[in-house]
Amino acid sequence: MIEGEYYPSGCGIFGILRKRNASKIKGKDVVRAIERVRFRGSDRGAGFAVFNFKSQNYYLLKIFYRGSEDEVRELLEKEGINVIDVIKEAEINDICSCSVIALADLNLIKMKMRTLNFRLWKDKIGRIYSAGSSLQVYKGVGYPLDIARIYNIDEIEGDMWLAHTRQPTNSPGYYPYWSHPFSSFNVAVVHNGDISSFGANMEFLKSKGIESFVGTDSEVIAFLFEELVNEGFSLEETIEILINPSRRIRPLDPFVEHMLRNARLDGPFSVIIGYDSGDDLYLIGIADRNKFRPMIMGEDENYYYIASEENEIRELSPNARVWTLKPGEYFLASLNKGVIRYGRPLEEIDMFSPPPIFRPKEYDIDAHNIDYRELNYYILKEIEKGKRLVRVANVLGHRYIGINLPSKNIRGVRIELYGVAGNCLANLNDGNEFYVYGNVGDDCCDTMHEGKVVILGDARDVLAQTFQSGKIFVKGNAGNRVGIQMRQYKDRKPYLIIGGRVDNYLGEYMAGGIIVVFGRGSKSEPVGYFIGTGMIGGKILIRGKVSPNKIGLQPPKIEILNLLRALVIDNIISPEEYEQLKDKEYIELVKSLEGRGREYLRKLIEDKLGIPTYEYRELNEEEFKELEPVIKEFSADVGEDFNEFLKEKFTVVFPPKFLKI
Amino acid sequence: MLISNKFIVVPSKEYESFWTIDKIEHIRKLALTGKPQMIFNENVESLRILDRITFKQHGQEISLEPNAKTDVTVNGIHMSTPLYLGDMSFGALSGNPNIAIVRAAEITETLAGTGEGGLHPEIAKYKRFFTQWASARFGVDIKTLTAGMGIVIKIGQGAKPGIGGHLPGSKVVDIISELRRIPKGIDALSPAPHHDIYSIEDLGQRIEALKEATGKPVFVKVAATNYIPYIVSGIARMKADGVIIDGHGAGTGATPFVVRDNLGMPIELAVASADYILRKEGLREKFTIIAAGRVSSANDAAKLIALGADVVSVGTAALIAMGCIQCDKCHIGYCPTSLTNKIDGSRILDLEFGTKSLVNFIRGFTLELANILDNLGLDSIDKLRGRRDLLFGNNLDEETLRILGIDGTTYEQEYKLGELWDRERLSYLHELVNKGDAVIVSMGSNAPPDVKKPARITDWLRIDGAQVTRPSIDPYREDIDTSFYLNKGKIYLSMPVIIDVTNLDTEYKLAWSWASLATSTLIFDIGAISNYEDVSFSKDGKGILTWATLPYQDKYILIPSDSYRIDDLLNAKTSGFIIDEDIGNDDLEVVLSDLDTKLKEAGVRNNYDIIVKTRNIRDSADVFKLLLLGADSVIIPGDIIFKVVNPRVSKKEEIKEKTFNFLVGIKKELALLAGAAGAYSIQSTIVGNRELLRAVNLPSKIRNVLRVKPAGSL
């Protein structure tokens, strides 16, 4: 077998599909959206995929080739493909990018795409990088705007688009081969993340006869997708297999799993797939089982959106409703059928905050058309002028807001942000207040030491990591890995209050402080899995009853049952006890067992920190006294009364041996 | 209180160790005298690649007043010699050693790294150090970040790529608890990944944030793992000022044994390959490479600089200069030399002794380096950097020479040289069967093929550790799935391990059967064990799985590990193959990989299971590497525990518990290894995934059969 190269990279991604009765999407809007996250990529590669659904009897091929149009024609005709036309679209570092209209049998085209690519790539002289009846990929070396100019993307219209800006670790030869999107027949893929299954997936594909790879994750994902669909799996099954959900939480059929070893994705990935099934166009968004990479969904009257960051969507549709996928979930919509799967129960989608307010009546700074560094500079200028309240309008994806304040020793200032704040807001915050009238991106309040952050909309992933003291109030939802490694020391204690819901890994490795999740308006449990995993201090309070199997990291049921059977054989427990224990959740079971049985069970399952424990109850007097003023302040800040909730019952999660610091 | 203020006797080791008495004595002489002792100490018989690299031409004269200049300026910081005293935290070290290191850096105009854990108040008085932004942010605030001359974002370290920091609870005393703001007496665990850095552009975001917040240079520290050239290139592209690459064999206060010994590659390959790609990408200028991991002398330093490093980092060598005797007990907290002990007032390093020894060491090291330059006919260290043409590789694999970018002689290295078991491996096994948990050790690795002699092919292979481009996964908290389906999904194993009990007495067969049931795995025998039929993999057809020596549709066929038989097996009607090394003539790794490859070429691989069986298995890393080469499960001999358990004096209950511990320990370690590589599902992601392996100087002939890339290759 031939060993391939591998080129890990990062990026920004975007996808859009029109609704059935909406007009086509203009290329220039897609360029605007992806240019919003220009900083996620580099000048080393970008691209677009456009789908225009129609039934026709010819196919569109795109090829990079070290040679002329005529040579391309000759090359294809030799393979039995009837070439109607070849147009040279661009020349990128001595490589011709040609668009080909061809007549041929579908199976012949598919087969030739493989065999020709194998030959071309062996000598690194070219690559067919797009093939399909409705799909065309445009890609090259540069920022999205550069690629758009080369191919005149602004003027192209489509039913569905994908876009990508690439941040490579390296860029072999500065050639366009490694730019995204990647395509297989009628499939285009953009993704963000570096999958650890790459080598395994290649093994699977090679065993299916696919031997030629330029060596990126997106390419492998495109091939896997096509292969699985060809093997007869439905779209939904194919996506489920790719997601590779946890065997414990959402097992696939064991036979299918066994036969598809090496065909599943692992590690971090956000993937957008565009697919023409022949009778419909599909837009698919996939999150890995823990949603390690950012991705946000949007919908308005005319379009469905998928993006790395909210600002891409807001650029085109300030009032779209947006939501995130649950970890290990997917979004699926089609041109004809509309939304097939939202990637989250509808009732949870309703809990996401309404569009932000971008412009208050009065403001000090307009962030429109200025970058984050300028914004931070202007905020600092206002403060130096003596202002204690600085209002900023039209915030849209600006990162690092406030990061320059701690080293200037500025404290006690209130900064109001209108719009969508970008990643890393209020990192290292030490005594200032930030009010966001809208949503914020990832990594908000990392290592915050003092002060307050109030978010009137939603926060995304990794909110309040190693938050040490002060208050963080979120009126709406927060995402995954919220409040992880929070800690307290002596009189310095952090409070993280969430009005809505959160996803996985709430309070992971928590060492101190208090997290409250109110789940206002929530019809189901307002938390995901793995609550308080590795927790050694602090307390998590979730309004209402939470299933014990969501707390900590818990073992597969079958392994517990086998251990219990072994304990029966050894007379450590009686058969009657087995019957009583066998249906219990681990967290209950470990409490019920004693002596050697418990020792064996814990040794099998836990590390020495153990898993957190919980109580379902009303707040005790001490807790109530501590939290009442905090929640009063929270209610006042978010403009809604949450005080009454404090009288209800909570699931209180705390470390196995409660530690006072 | 005991005051450590002199060198104590170095105990002799019961196994081969990188830090030999000679190396320690050399450092001690430098620390005592501050004068050059020895240059160009050649040792081309060594298995370590760097030792096999020599300077082509040089004199031998040692002068007390050499002429060449050793000073360098990196990112605006002037250093008298390219030496960084690397990243040992307050907590890992006991306070005075931390202060001594920073004072020595100040006195000698070099640089120190504080490691994670905040600033010791005494250290805050100085300036010549980098502070650390690590995954737990212990002790990090704006004051800490701006206190030194730069910031290091710590992604990984050579002693445990893909594994988080671990300060045992016994060492978390009052002052440590205060600085780190964590509870006293509880293990201080730093997550394996940074939860805000799951991708290369995330790293860029954090670099930019720290620069905006502090205005200081930002470095990124990573372990040298499979994708190191790409990772370094990515770090430079993300506008970091430099990288600290920490090679295999670097020291630590606590690390899982199997991780320490089986992940990552030697620094010499990593530096050569990183320097190469940075130049190719036009990113080398103004970017600093600090090379760390097993830098034991000025000679090592000179060679690493010629391969492309700007600065070298010493950790273990600095500890040795302050009296460390390499007793490898840091994780327990009773350091006899008061360097890594628990801070409990019982013993303390004399600060003056520590500082003076370290200053002397640095001065002696600097003079040796200057002497090396003189003897190479170069007048400054700047003229040595990147001069691969001065180097010569003695008896290395051709690919290794190519990666290093140097001339040399090639050599078909014998690949089975050593013994399978030694004292270090036995003590690992002893602890595994007694605790039933991943075995924790301290200080650097002595693993083959660099130090100990390789005993089987797996000894030449290193596993990937996820660094920067994807997150490693914390096995302590995350849902890493070690379970395996066999036989078309009909059988569930909690881990890909089966115990061979064929040669055991009934009592022990029963013990293993019980443990296999309790841990949801299988035993392998001729006849099924009664009451344990549903965990028996037997020949008699009474177990849950059946094997035979001839092919049958619904049985597994047991075959000797003989390469010549493979082609006949490709169309076999069978549930799967059991390749038995104990009755074959060829290496299991080779036969396994070959069968896996050929079944894939025939497009039928997933119709079968490939199970491998060998007596010569030592730990979870051997199992993991066999999975990476294509095995669906590994059969381990049940009598392995009798290497460390005396059956005659142990009670039946104890044996049972130890079999249980063994299986549980192996399972936890498999999760550790998978997590370090960034994989959740071992069955789908690890089996056959050769991308996650690299071979260190393994002869190309075997490497090609295995389809494993050489370490350091692009």
How does this model look, in words?
The complex is a heterodimer of chains A (661) and B (714). By secondary structure, chain A is α+β, with helices and mostly antiparallel strands. Chain A has three domains: 11-55 and 133-346, Glutamine Phosphoribosylpyrophosphate, subunit 1, domain 1, CATH 3.60.20.10; 365-552 and 612-654, Pectate Lyase C-like, CATH 2.160.20; 557-605, no CATH class. Chain A has 16 helices and 30 strands. In chain A, the strands form five sheets. In chain A, strands 20-21-22-23-24-25-26-27-28-30-29 form an eleven-stranded mixed sheet, with helices on both faces. In chain A, helix 6 (217-230) packs across helix 7 (235-243). Chain A is globular. In chain B, helix 7 packs across helix 9. In chain B, strand 21 (484-486) and strand 22 form a beta hairpin. The model of chain B has no long low-confidence stretch (mean pLDDT 95). Chain B is built from 21 helices and 31 strands. Chain B folds into two domains: 2-6 and 65-384, Aldolase class I (TIM Barrel, Alpha-Beta Barrel), CATH 3.20.20; 473-692, TIM Barrel, CATH 3.20.20.70. In chain B, strands 5-6-7-8-11-12-14-15 form an eight-stranded parallel beta barrel, surrounded by five helices. Chain B has an eight-stranded parallel beta barrel with strand order 23-24-25-26-27-28-29-30. The interface between A and B is large, with 115 and 99 residues.
